[in-house]
Amino acid sequence: MGSPPAAEGTRATRIFGTPTELNSLFGEILDWMLAPLLFLWPVSIALTHHVANNIANQPYDQALAENVNVIARQVKVVGGKVVVNFPAPARALLRADQSDTTYYQVLGLRGELVVGDKEIPRPEIPDEFSPDTVLFRDDDIHGEEIRVAYQFVAPQARGLSVLVQVAETRKKREDLASRIISGVILPQFAIIPLAVVLVYLGLTRGIAPLTRLQRRIRQRRPGDLAQINIHGVPEEVRPVIVAFNDMMARFEQNLQGQQRFIANAAHQMRTPLTGLKMQTELAQSETDPQLIRASLQHIAESAERAAHLINQLLTLARAEASHEKMHVFTTVDLENLAREVTQEAVPRALAKGIDLGFEDSGWPLLIDGSPVLLHELMSNLVDNAIKYTLPGGRVTARTRAEDFAIFEVEDNGIGMSEADRELVFERFYRVLGSEADGSGLGLAIVREIAELHRASVQLRPNAAGRGTLAQAVFPRQGVSYPLQPAAAE
């Protein structure tokens, strides 16, 4: 059966078919409802056949038992010899059945045939039996199935007994069982297809709310990120809609953040580009080589600031978009990476006359992370410290091995107020009164990368006096953390 309109864009699975990647909820439910029905139908037929045979056996077994009792009453043991008074009319009446062949047999105390048909097989004598009790069994004569009723009569002291058996073929029984089965099974050929149709219609009506919900979603404008009203939504689908609304809310927040980011980036790019344009115009109007050289120097500085800003913007965008496909996390030795970043910053520190040092923990600090992004985080912290430290100052990068892996950058620079220590992590925020060049993105990038690595980052006053201590705290490999890591003291 095909799917209703609600399943548009998907394909219903066939009954007992292999599920596909894009299967239909309607088809899945229909499969699980019809599959048990189709499985139970042959079981029902087998049970019906068994019950019909038992029902058919009851009246005919009773007739066989009466025949056995009639013959048994004619059996006498006289002088150790079995005598049966069974006149010819009675024998003719016993064989008067027109549907089945009837057999009878009387065996003497030693198993000899006294009267009747020798074709009836002799039964196994049970260890215990009650005289005058009629027993039944299924057997065959010349390959034809028969039903046998038998009784042990006149037991003797040595366990010898007379055996009376009456058997008949099973045609009447099979005919009666067939009529019973036909009366039960034939109506099912009409009931089961009707049940399938009713199930299909019921499922179609049951998923109609999904069809209406689909129409409501498709009718929305492409830019409409408002939450879906859950009024009238089926209870089973409501958690999905609530989760979808939460996802849409997060998506809207991310979209708004990206729009603000683009607007801020465009505003920040306008300043260096405007400076480049002005310096170029000045250089074109100058004739003095010295003034032209000075204008070109300003142009180079403005271009360098613009390039730095663009690189910072790209790094921030890359950090925000980081996932397994873009940055595969591997095992990183934080200590070796910190030493490498510090060595790279030595020329910049020397150019400014700053004493840059590195203190290691003496232990391998293994964490899970992206080496590229972690390098960017450390470089930004070290560059910030160099940038905001006056010539002749001191900057120290260090690693510490505790429950967490800790990277710190300590300087004796200009420092910052308590309010600024949190605000500097916002994009494009600049501390008032600072003369150092900067884009206001360095620490925003640091926080973005730290969050990606489940780490924390903070700025504190330098305990040794003037300056700032920047600290990033990372989870170490092989250590379980029930809570988010708190900043190490």
Mean pLDDT: 77
What count of structural domains? 3
Helix content: 40-55%
The quaternary structure here is: single chain
* Outline: elongated
Distance between the first and last residues' Cα = 67 Å
If strands are numbered along the chain, what order do they take across the biggest sheet?
4-3-7-6-5
Percent strand equals 15-25%
Please provide a written account of the structure.
The protein is α+β, with helices and mostly antiparallel strands. It has 10 helices and 14 strands. It is elongated and about 155 Å long.
Entry keywords:
489 residues; alpha+beta; Helix Hairpins; Heat Shock Protein 90; five-stranded antiparallel beta sheet; 10 helices; elongated; disordered N terminus
Q: What order do the helices and strands come in, and which of them pair?
A:
Elements: H1 25-72, E1 75-78, E2 81-84, H2 88-94, E3 102-107, E4 113-116, E5 135-141, E6 144-153, E7 162-169, H3 171-206, H4 208-218, H5 238-285, H6 289-320, E8 330-333, H7 334-352, E9 355-359, E10 366-369, H8 371-387, E11 394-401, E12 404-411, H9 418-423, H10 442-452, E13 456-461, E14 468-475
Parallel strand pairs: 9-11
Antiparallel strand pairs: 1-2, 3-4, 3-7, 5-6, 6-7, 8-10, 11-12, 12-14, 13-14
Helix pairs in contact: 1-3, 5-6, 6-10, 7-8, 8-10
